[in-house]
């Protein structure tokens, strides 16, 4: 009896132990399985976030070639506008001259228009705008955009001109003289007397630009075209023309000093922006398309 009870008790304990081992074994498997599941979910989430970030970066970087292409196209239109403006100014300065109108309202819309006047100079009241260099349109087009340009400097000679047919006195930019010829006594041959015809280009008053010195009225050193002040000194009407090259006399200032050359660097900008567009487009393609 005792032995039978001992065997029965031993069997019951062994069964419980097996059950416990089975539960522990199954519990460990569940924990391991749960860990793998969590790891898989975490890896899936990070992969999805990474793909979202890559997609955003992909389309955001595409803005660079798109923007540079737009800027290049804008410069193409700007260049066309600038060329039309230059052509228009050139046509005005080479058109057939018209009689000079004396109405200020009409003159304000005729800048760069060629006009014809007849009268005589008053050399005793010359004004000098300096420093100036002789106008060379081809050279200025080459040097456009440079901080400095080579070449000699001098002055433009502004002389009152009494129009006999209109009965008024205007100001005429006779043209350029080198600095050693600024004083009238050094070019007496060019100080013509008597009545003559002058063809010139209408110019309006100027405002002082940044870094341009103020006009020194007492020393007769002018740095920009201030018609109001010039007319007070000479007693002329606020009408100003640049004499053309054909009005030049031997020994006198060289006419044709109207600058109509505008800075036209748009072709450089076009090449720059389109070049950046091509380079960034290739980099974007190699990064996001070719890699796929």
UniProtKB/TrEMBL annotation:
It is found in: Membrane; Mitochondrion inner membrane. Its main location: membrane. The chain crosses the membrane at residues 269-289. PROSITE patterns: SURF1. It is a multi-pass membrane protein. GO terms for cellular component: mitochondrial inner membrane. The keyword Glycoprotein does not apply. One of its GO terms (biological process) is mitochondrial respiratory chain complex IV assembly. Keywords: Membrane, Mitochondrion, Mitochondrion inner membrane, Transmembrane, Transmembrane helix. Belongs to the SURF1 family. Probably involved in the biogenesis of the COX complex. This is SURF1-like protein.
């Amino acid at each position: 009896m005792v032995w039978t009870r001992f065997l029965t008790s031993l069997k019951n304990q062994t069964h419980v132990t097996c059950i416990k081992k089975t539960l522990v074994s199954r519990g460990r498997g569940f924990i391991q399985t749960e860990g793998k599941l969590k790891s898989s979910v975490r890896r899936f989430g990070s992969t999805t976030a990474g793909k979202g970030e890559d997609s955003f970066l992909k389309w955001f970087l595409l803005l660079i070639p798109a923007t540079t292409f737009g800027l290049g196209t804008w410069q193409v239109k700007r260049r066309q506008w600038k060329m039309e403006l230059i052509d228009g100014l050139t046509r005005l300065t080479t058109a057939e001259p018209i009689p000079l109108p004396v109405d200020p309202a009409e003159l304000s819309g005729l800048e760069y228009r060629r006009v014809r006047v007849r009268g005589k100079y008053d050399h005793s009241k010359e004004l000098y705008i300096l420093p100036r260099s002789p106008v060379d349109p081809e050279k200025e087009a080459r040097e456009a955009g440079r901080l400095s340009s080579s070449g000699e400097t001098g002055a433009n000679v502004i002389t009152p001109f009494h129009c006999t047919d209109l009965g008024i006195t205007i100001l005429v930019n006779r043209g350029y003289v080198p600095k050693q010829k600024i004083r009238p006594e050094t070019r007496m041959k060019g100080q013509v007397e008597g009545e003559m015809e002058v063809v010139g280009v209408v110019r309006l008053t100027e405002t002082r630009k940044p870094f341009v010195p103020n006009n020194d009225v007492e020393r007769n050193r002018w740095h920009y075209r201030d018609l109001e002040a010039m007319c007070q000194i000479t007693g002329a009407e606020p009408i100003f023309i640049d004499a053309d090259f054909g009005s030049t006399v031997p020994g006198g200032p060289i006419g044709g000093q109207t600058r109509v050359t505008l800075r036209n660097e748009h072709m450089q900008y076009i090449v720059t922006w389109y070049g950046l567009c091509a380079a960034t487009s290739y980099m974007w393609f190699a990064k996001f398309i070719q890699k796929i």
